[in-house]
Amino acid sequence: MFASMTLISRVKCRRLSFSSWTRGFFGGLLGLLSLPACKDTYLTDGVVVLTTGQEADAWTVEPSAQNVLLEMVQDTKRTTLAKVAAPATEISIGTDGPNGEVATFEATAFDSDANVVLKGATVPLGIYGFESAEITLFMGRAGGVSRAPGNLVFPWRHPQMAVLYHGYLLISGGDDASANLEVYNMPRWGAAPQQAPLPKVPGSWAISGSKMLIIDQTSATWFDFSTYVKSDVTPPVELAYGDIVGGETIGAPGDPQYIVGATRSKGEPTDQVLRVDPDATLHFMKLKTPRLGASAALVDGQLLVVGGSATGAGAEVANSADTAFVELPFPSDARLGAAIVVKDSSTAILAGGHDPESDEIAGFRTMDLSCSEDCSQAPIEGADFAFVYPRLFSVSENQLLAVGEDPKTAETHVFTFDLGLGHELNEFALRTPRSGASAFLLPNGQVGVLGGSTLADETPASSIELFFPAP
Fold first, then answer.
1. What's the gap between Cα 333 and its chain centre?
2. Angstrom distances, CA of residue 157 to CA of 176, 449, 470
3. Domain range spanning residue 123?
């Protein structure tokens, strides 16, 4: 299901907001997905409300924005909805519009030389006409980070995140093993009020439709956001929760998700993987080699696992039936905690990860996944990355976003990494310098950094910062 901006004409609107758990927060959330987002009047033009969040000078900082282009994007089709002077806070989109289709809205602001200076995009929205709809769109300076509207309720250090219904960012877990639940509403660009805790601390979790699978050391629970019902889970034969808990969840909303025990940073090496299908069925998968601190990503829909063991193959990938793993001809790789991103069906890029014997942190390197014999990871010369908690994201065809943490100070750093000639690594200062943050791919395709403590006074860093790529 996509987040909805549906308007049902001539039906009385309800203003919808997040409520407390006891008043049915998740029921309200589902209502927000299925009912109109509208004003108090009817048969009026729809509007896109532009916000620059916590960046009050976003329009005026040099070079200042002079005009704004608003577009609707449906797959590869772009439709211009408006061109207006900057600064703009509200843009009319009329009453017409597609019916029963999914699209995103993008806004681009230009300076006097037609250079892009601000960008913004919504999450995917289910559209049933524009009449009386009100859409919120967050814009930030291109080629940097900007703080989104609203502040998080709870303090977090290295939290874990999941996406519900392509539009809602769920935040929990982290260093403090908290069962607190934070929800950031990306269709409306705002944080929900404080909610009651989850049924248990999520050592690992996955999303299937309206249900969340929450796993701890000894058990698992399904929690259904649409009914508030929780139920115990019978694990697949051979699966031990203690062998996957703490593992990273790989996979997008609406697709199979994989909880990969081998990616966890603590405990014993494990070969166990739990596949969670979109229909909430669970499947046990077993790696060829038990691993600890491995990297994992999807390549053409198949799970790739790299490193984390001084024995066995250096990488393995799920077979076409998605039931077992096939070793790739790379030498064993004992490095722990590397970041990985898959650029295409034959290329993976890694950064960071430390050798368990020397504690040396590795730099950027590539893997040719089409290699058939005597394969090896190829270091990218001059591209060191001496950071822990690394994360990699692809932001354009020739550029990655790298996020890492200084191993001594725990300060979180954000870089772009050029895949072209020179392999330039450029740092972008966070608007709120912080330590102990996490980075995550958000539902609108941008990378967000959140959580941690401010460097200034070690208070909780409550803002979410988004990276806006330069064109």
1. 27
2. 7, 11, 29
3. 3-142
